[in-house]
Amino acid sequence: MTSQPTRTSIRGSLRNIGRFMEGVRECAAAAEAGRRPSRQALSAIGIDADAYYSIGTGR
Question: What are the pLDDT digits (tens) for 2-54?
């Protein structure tokens, strides 16, 4: 017997998708404006902020 997804897991999934999309939007807006995206936005889309910020610095 296969268990059915619960409302909680569906809500959690939708919340995670929303956070991801908000992170993508913020990162794209920052890139277009020539700014650095926030650590929170980078984290939401699965990018390590320290690694991102060190690009081009030779670290």
Answer: 666 666 788 899 999 999 999 999 999 999 999 999 999 999 999 999 999 99
Residues making up the chain, counted from first to last: 59
Among residues 48, 49, 50, 40, the alpha carbon closest in space to that of 20 is found at 40
The answer to whether residues 36 and 30 touch, using CB atoms and an 8 Å cutoff, is yes
The residue to which tokens 């897991």 are assigned: 9
Per DSSP, the three-state class of 27 is: helix
Largest Cα–Cα separation, the chain: 54
Count Cα neighbours of 59 within 13 Å in the Cβ-side half-sphere.
7
